[in-house]
């Protein structure tokens, strides 16, 4: 009986100690658990995009907002690449690494990239600053295909942002195929 009272008293002390943890300690514990779970998943060969319920993932250069109307984007457009869901994560990862590592030709013209998760496919788009420079737009397409090792025959669509504003659509009614 004395032992059980001591255990109850210890349990009560533990509960009071647990409740006195501050929020930063709790956040640190949660962050650590999340990092450990992510490390286990990566070791097991599970890709982080497989577990997320994302609608889109955006990577833009500093100071550029993900809006067609942003001053860096308003005269530009985007190359649109459609992928089957099973391979989109790999292509997105390759593109992000290329953008962060400044490995693509014409990278000064690139504003960023967006991965849009759709029901039947995923859409990767690379945003650029100047849609009126046809030669630069086509050279960017070639650089993307080369870096992602897409066949030369792989079809990509291009759409200027002002056209997206007019028809209120990101991916319909594209202007250029290549």
* Strand neighbour order, sheet with most strands: 1-3-4-2-5-6
Class by helix and strand content?
alpha+beta
Number of helices: 5
Strand content: 15-25%
- How many domains? The number is 2
If you compute it from the alpha carbons, what radius of gyration comes out, rounded to the nearest whole angstrom?
Answer: 24 Å
- In N-to-C order, the SSE pattern is HHEEHEEHEHE
Which residues form runs of ≥5 with pLDDT under 50? 1-24
Q: What about the largest sheet?
A: 6 strands, antiparallel
CATH topology of the largest domain: RNA Cap, Translation Initiation Factor Eif4e
What is the CATH first-level class name of the largest domain? Alpha Beta
Overall average pLDDT:
76
Strands, count: 6
CATH architecture of the largest domain: 2-Layer Sandwich
Principal-axes shape call? globular
Question: First CA to last CA: what distance?
Answer: 82 Å
What would CATH call the homologous superfamily of the largest domain? RNA Cap, Translation Initiation Factor Eif4e
Residue share in helices? 40-55%
How would you describe the overall organization of this protein?
- The protein has helices at 2-19, 23-43, 85-100, 134-148, 161-167, and strands spanning 56-60, 77-83, 110-117, 122-128, 157-160, 176-177.
- The longest helix is centred in the N-terminal third of the chain and has 21 residues, at 23-43.
- It has a 6-stranded antiparallel beta sheet with strand order 1-3-4-2-5-6.
- It is of the alpha+beta class and 178 residues long.
- It has 5 helices and 6 strands, in the order H-H-E-E-H-E-E-H-E-H-E.
- It has 2 domains: 2-46, no CATH class; 50-177, RNA Cap, Translation Initiation Factor Eif4e (2-Layer Sandwich), CATH 3.30.760.
- The N and C termini lie far apart (82 Å).
- It is globular, with a radius of gyration of 24 Å.
- One of its GO terms (molecular function) is RNA 7-methylguanosine cap binding.
- Residues 1-32 are annotated as: Disordered.
- One of its GO terms (cellular component) is eukaryotic translation initiation factor 4F complex.
- It comes from Salix udensis.
């Amino acid at each position: 009986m004395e032992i059980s009272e001591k255990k109850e008293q210890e349990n009560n002390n533990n509960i009071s100690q647990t409740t006195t943890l501050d929020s930063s300690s709790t956040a640190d514990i949660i962050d650590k658990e999340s990092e450990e779970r992510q490390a286990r998943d990566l070791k097991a060969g599970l890709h982080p995009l497989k577990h997320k319920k994302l609608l889109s993932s955006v990577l833009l250069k500093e100071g550029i907002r993900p809006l067609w109307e942003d001053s860096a984007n308003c005269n530009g457009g985007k190359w649109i690449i459609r992928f089957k869901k099973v391979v989109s994560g790999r292509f997105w990862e390759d593109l992000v690494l290329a953008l962060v590592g400044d490995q693509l030709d014409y990278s000064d013209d690139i504003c960023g990239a967006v991965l849009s998760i759709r029901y039947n496919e995923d859409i990767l788009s690379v945003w650029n600053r100047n849609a009126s420079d046809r030669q630069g737009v086509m050279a960017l397409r070639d650089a993307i295909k080369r870096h992602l090792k897409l066949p030369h025959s792989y079809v990509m669509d291009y759409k200027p942002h002002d056209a997206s504003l007019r028809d209120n659509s990101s991916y319909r009614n594209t202007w250029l195929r290549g």
